[in-house]
Design a protein that fits this description.
7-stranded mixed β-sheet; 0% helix; 4-stranded antiparallel β-sheet; mainly beta
Length: 124
């Protein structure tokens, strides 16, 4: 049974930085394409960033490009999201997700495994 557990969320101010972590257990982490999604109240879950099996390819939503960095440590079975220059519009619940697909998907249905989510609130 694959489990994903996020951590690192919290309340920050505009311009601050945060680093999210997602520990994966019960599966072969190095064989998963991984992604971060977020969901604000009243909105659909949206793609934030994705990374390929071995971390050679990354893809970002336009809204976070240049501010967020996704990375994965296959030895530690951990996915990261470094978030800099946070804005109020980044406020949401952030989810990590794993996929057995070989390409980075941008839709929730492209992912097979999900974490429980971690709240990030950016105050202005």
């Amino acid at each position: 049974q694959v489990q994903l557990v996020e951590s690192g969320g919290g309340l920050v101010q505009t311009g601050d930085s945060l680093r999210l972590s997602c520990v994966v257990s019960g599966g072969t982490f190095s064989s998963y394409t991984m992604g971060w999604f977020r969901q604000a109240p009243g909105t659909e879950r949206e793609f934030v960033a994705g990374i390929s099996w071995f971390g050679h390819t990354t893809y970002y939503a336009d809204s976070v490009k240049g501010r967020f960095t996704i990375d994965k440590d296959n030895l530690q079975n951990t996915l990261y999201l470094q978030m800099n220059s946070l804005k109020s519009e980044d406020t949401a619940v952030y989810y990590c997700a794993g996929s057995t697909r070989s390409v980075i998907g941008q839709l929730p249905r492209h992912y097979d495994y999900w974490g429980q989510g971690t709240q990030i609130t950016v105050s202005s």
